[in-house]
# Entry
Amino acid sequence: MGEPAALLVEHAAELTTLAGPPGARRGRAQGEVGAVADGAVAVSADGRILAAGPTEAVRAALRLGPGARVIDASGRAVLPGFVDAHTHAVFAGDRVDEFELRLRGADYLEILAAGGGILSTVRATRAASAEALAARTAGFLESMLLLGATTVEIKSGYGLSTAEELKQLGVVRALRGRVPHTLVATLLAAHALPPEHRDAPDGYVRLVCEETIPAAAAAGLAGFCDVFCERGVFSVEQSRRVLRAGLAHGLRPKLHAEQKSRSGGAGLAAELGAASADHLEYAEEEDLVGLAAAGTVAVLLPGAALMLREERVAPARRMVELGVPVALATDFNPGTCPIRSVPVVIGLACLRLGLSPAEALVAATINAACAIGLGDEVGSLEPGKRADLLVLDAPSYRHIPYQLATNLVRTVVKDGRVVVEDGRRVDGAGVAC
Ligand code: NIG
Ligand code: FE
# Structure
């Protein structure tokens, strides 16, 4: 008997551990959730998983520490906390007017070309103080936690100058420790062309490569570099320059690729061995073959496609068949996706992309973790990993897509602390750690 447990969640009707070999799951493994009946998870005082498996076996192998808390999950499902691998959660203002324009037929990229869309959020975000942005983002993260997201990636991209991009990334840094989530920051300085560089796009690309990326990397503010590679936004050639500069400064590449047209981003992601290629509605067979060979994770964002009323769906089934690891994320942002619920995205992935509930669960946990470089830390309930887990008001994770838009998350444990109980936020209450 090793380290004593500070927390034991036991007798879950169904425990899905998502245990498996290291790395993102693809092909058949995309649907393997590691389901255990009458399951238990034991957690150390420092918030790491000691054991996960059948209650009897976990009980037999451990001793409870003094003051340990025991949660009876009878009749309920226990699963890893969700990993939201793609958000733009630092912003000011809203775009409800644009939403209505789009409902009346306006085009997202045309709104951007006319100086609205992303650029209207840039104006609002530049005008906001870092403190005001942090307070707003903390509020978003609170609601995401209630919906089960314990790890969240956040991109910059509403600053579009070195100082303003660093301000946004600084908000993410300031929030670490202030919110329970594990936060990952991505530099997305190449999100749109700022108005100051309207007539000289290459000048902005040069600024991003020579100033913004080195500054963000030197300050340790981001782990990834992303580009919106799209017709009328940044070309493949410009995206390549930005991502290569990022790589030279230790930032792993990611791409917004093939979202509104087939613009070549997926091919570039494969060429650079990007951590992920995201969106991919317009990806074709050749793109998928390339992503599979590169081991790049496809991060699908069906919430954004829904909000943009995009009829074309990402070829998720073909991705699974070809061995592209598939992840899911919200893409939470004020323009294309104000949806901040991973459970709703899991439902959309089943209903619109044809993933099975098991494939969607893998996509929103371990594969999402791999897309942001945290596959060894979060995304599954395995010894040594962070104890991030959910208890649902349902006997199986399969109820998540089935009871679409109902929040089934009752309990959230983050780093071994109970942070949500009975669907309400508590602050580590009652946990010995
Ligand atoms: O992932 N398409 C580019 N970027 C975001 C949207 C950002 C915005 O519209 O504010 C996306 O959809
Ligand atoms: Fe995005």
Notes: Residues 88, 117-118, 121, 228, 256, 259, 304, 331, 333-336 surround N-(iminomethyl)-L-glutamic acid (ligand 1) (CB under 6 Å). The longest strand covers residues 5-16.
